[in-house]
Structures are given as C-alpha cells and as structure tokens.
Write a structure and sequence with these properties.
By secondary structure, the protein is of the alpha+beta class. The protein has one domain (about 5-90): 3-Layer(aba) Sandwich (Aminopeptidase). It is built from two helices and four strands; from the N terminus they run E-H-E-H-E-E. It has a four-stranded mixed beta sheet with strand order 1-2-4-3, covered by helices on one side. Strand 3 and strand 4 form a beta hairpin. It is globular, with a radius of gyration of 15 Å. It starts with 9 loop residues before the first strand and ends with a strand. About 10% of the residues are buried. It binds coenzyme A.
Amino acid sequence: MGQKYKVRHRAKFGINVEKRFWGRGIGRALTNACPECARKAGYKQVELEVVSENTSAISLYKSVGFIEYGRNPKAFLSRHGMWQEVVLMRLEL
Ligand SMILES: CC(C)(COP(=O)(O)OP(=O)(O)OC[C@H]1O[C@@H](n2cnc3c(N)ncnc32)[C@H](O)[C@@H]1OP(=O)(O)O)[C@@H](O)C(=O)NCCC(=O)NCCS
C-alpha cells in the first residue's frame, strides 16, 4: 500500500503576482484567504518557501500566522554562482 496518506494533511502555498499589479493588495487578499481555503479543503498544515531577502513577503506570511521552522542557506544557485537562502514556513490550521 502507498504511503501517501501520511502527507495528505499538508498543502503547499505560493503566490506570484505579475509585477505591474504589485502594491494593490492582491498578494494580501490571496494570503488572507489561504488559511480558510486550505481548512475547507481538509488540510491541517500549509507550508511555503520564500527567499530570505523577500522581507515584505515574509512579513505578509507572518501576519496570517505562518512561522519559520528552518532555513536552507544553499537553496538556489544563480547562474553567477551566488547562493540564495530560503526560509521554510508553516501554518498549522
Ligand atoms: C510578494 C508578492 C506576492 C506581493 O504581492 P502584492 O500584490 O504586491 O502584495 P500587496 O499589494 O497585497 O502587499 C502585501 C504587503 O506587502 C507590503 N508591500 C507591498 N509592496 C511592498 C514593497 N515594495 N516594499 C515593502 N512592502 C511592500 C504592503 O504594504 C502589504 O502590507 P499590508 O497588507 O500589511 O499593507 C509579490 O510582490 C510577488 O508576486 N512577488 C514575486 C514572487 C514572490 O516573491 N512570491 C512570494 C514568495 S513565494
């Protein structure tokens, strides 16, 4: 038997708003809707990954209850050989 039931409670969250629409409250509206939406869908935990430099996104996620549970300092490697750190966050529903 498969083991998929073990991770069925976990949802992944990610948003990407087209740049010309930034700063109009779209990201806030989507993030605010996330907990209720995931709860209704039967999930118990929502998880996300965000680049640590993206402080406005991190504070947006914290404002709806996401908490940091770890960091991956070498999550991304750019074409120019630069590492980018990623913050791992979770929200318990
Ligand atoms: C992060 C992102 C989703 C925000 O979307 P948005 O529609 O511009 O967000 P909003 O207009 O709802 O603003 C969200 C909050 O960030 C703040 N904010 C927005 N632009 C900002 C800026 N340039 N500098 C600082 N804070 C900023 C706002 O004040 C707002 O806070 P508030 O709701 O408490 O007032 C968007 O910038 C994006 O898609 N970025 C690229 C992809 C990405 O980074 N995704 C998230 C990582 S997984």
